[in-house]
Predict the 3D structure of the following.
Amino acid sequence: MFENSNRVMRILVLWLLAFGPSPAAASKAHPMQVNIFGDGNPLNGVEDDREPVLAGPAETGVESDRNLNAGTIVCDGKFRGTAMVVDTRDYAPDFAGAILLSAAHVFYDLDKKRLFRRCEFYFMGWRHRAGYRAKIDLDSVRMGDFDPAQVTRRVEFGQGDWAFLYLRKTWKNYRPSQGLRLRAFAFDEGESFQQRGGEFRLVAFDSDAGVITGSRNCTVVESEAGDLGGGAWKGQLLDDCDSADGASGGGIIAVLNHQPYLIGIRSGSHWSELVYPAERFPSGPPDGAVWDRRLNTNFGRAVDAQLIGELVAMIQSHPQ
């Protein structure tokens, strides 16, 4: 029975790709909704490869993950997503305070279409450890043109889904070396990058496990015509990094020679509403579904010259 239904699904998918509307036309962007991918066979379990990220030097001095530092955003008492700690030393060696990068939609009440009133950052998600909370000044947030009233209607959704946050008062034992360096990655070299031993990862909070996790050995590509993103805007990244609730604002990372670089920020996911209709899949594709950039994928916003320029402007707006 399972093999027959699987065969029917494959025939349907092939027919849709050959004769149906374009993938982008049959999909919508889904902020906050993210997926865990597998081989599509629910009988052998969900192939979720996420592992907890070890604490950074603020807690244990562990070298292997010392730069993979992140935390959680809580707004008006609600858990909202992930934010990445940014290394500012290339632009301001003596900068006081900390800067975070996250997704803009994290700071909006998407039901009421407005910004939250009060937000806080918890380093590594440690909400119950004294000294690891930092207040976010929402008046100083530097944000893209995310519009909560047009979450899924604009093909450009995601391009403005970024936010830099300044923390004047940091958490316990903070050091600038805890952050990730930003890098504009050339995705036309993605395959050769991996052949040279490079690796793509996602670092984000897993609200079910209650920890920051890392998904390793991901595939990350730039959207183009013919896939779910339709190549609608430069720097739209599609990836198969496993993630779930809490990953919005998480870091898409390139690691080469043991040096991690922050190259993108997780926004949400795309999927074909012809293959995964809402009446059968109200929460989107089931965990363990196959990753396919034309049918089912997570997506994010790449770090580029604009974002690096915004980081520099953020630093300059807080003179030391």
Residues 2-19 form the longest helix (18 residues).
